[in-house]
Structures are given as C-alpha cells and as structure tokens.
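Give me the fold.
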Amino acid sequence: MKLLSYNIWIKINNSKKVGEFIKKHDFDIVLLQENLRNLEDKVFDKYKTDSVIKSIIANKYPYSFFAPLLCMSKIKSNDEVRLDFNGYVEQWNQILSKYPISSATNEFFYWNYELKFDWSDFEKNDHFRSILVSEVKIWDKKIQIINIHWTYSKDKLDSERWFLQCEKILEITRRNNLPTIIAGDFNLFPSTKAINVLSKKFKNLIWEYNITSTRPDFKDYLDEGNNVVDYIFVDEKIKVNSFQVLNTDISDHLPLILDFDII
C-alpha cells in the first residue's frame, strides 16, 4: 500500500500539478491539507483545487471525504484584501482512497466551522482546527488514518495549545485497536515537546529516516533553524516498507510518501 500526505498550499495556481503528481505516482490513499473546494462556479479557476484534481485523477479514487474548517470568499487583513477567490470556497483536509472509507469524521478541537473574512489576528490568536479521522477497509482489514493540520506557529515551537492537540490525538487513538497512521502538517519542529510525546507512543518516521527538511527552498519562505514541519507516525501494526520525502516545487511543503503493509 502506498500513502501520500501533502500540504498543497492555497496561494498559488498549482492544482493541475498536484493532480498530475497524484496520478503519476498512483497512490492507494491520499491525504491532503489546505485543499480548496469551490461552492460557486464563479470562483477563479486557480482556486477550484478539488475540482481540478478530481478531473485529472478521474475515477482512480472512488472514495473520499472532505473535512472543511471554514468558508470564505476572500482573505482580508487590516481592511486590505490579500486574497480574493471571486466566490465562496471551503478549505482544509481531505482523504482520497481506492479502498472503501467505512467511517470518517471531522472532529474540531478549536472553535467550529465558520464563515471568515478577517485574518488580521492570524498570528496572535488560536485558530479553528480539526482532525480528519477515518477508517479505511483494505480487503479484510481496517486501518485508522488521522489527517491533521495543526495550529499555525511562526516559530514552530511548543505552547499549551499544542499539548491539548496532542492529547486529543492520543485520545482518538485509544478508542479502538486498529492499525493507525497519523499524518499531516504539524507546524512544529522535531525537537518540540509535543512531537516527543507523540514519538513515545508511535514510530516517528521523520526521526527513523533522518529527514532534515519537509519544505522546499523558496526565496519568499524563511524558517529559522530546522525545516521539518510535516510528519507521519505509525503504530506497531503498520509495517513500514519505505518512507521518503520527495523534492518538488509544487507547493511550499514537500510530499511525504509511505509504503506499508498491515500486520
């Protein structure tokens, strides 16, 4: 089985490249963060991300679940329009699968789904965040897959809200005894306490494979220190055949690819 976890970035016109990348590598399961789903036809084509991707991958992924955080038609900061979608869109996490999704939920741990335009306080306050929790049936077995995009942090360091999110993830994994994969954009460096807490319960593939960056080298992207912010964790019921982070310029994050079997 081959799984992709990928933050695909909403700010650039890359939907076609993302779709072609997924089609080329023929993943069994795809986890996306920062995906956009247009709610109106008038939305600019470059922001019809979900529609464009699905038009390229066609019927390869008959099962999917979109987990929106918010609805918006533009992004404003201090009364200045920074991004205009020309219509309403929903944004955030998604799973695409070749195998049946037997259950899926969008579990909020900060706030609720909302209509939002003003992002002036983006770096100051807690933000709406949720966890996409799904169960996928692969032949005669089920696995639990958790797709997350943690709260934004400019310095990618710990705070109390990260520990709360970490505890929420651990609480979810204790609900059943299924083989579990946790993946996504954590917005945290590997040395942080929250990442260490998860790494004590699950195998941290970033550590296991000595990954030094999950971000491409863009001129307009600056992070002090470590450039690892995306992760995949697995439990002992997941046999890792290979794990890699591919170097591409499609997004402001790199794609994480896991090849695995279910024990």
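The domain at 2-262 is CATH 3.60.10.10 (Deoxyribonuclease I; Chain A).
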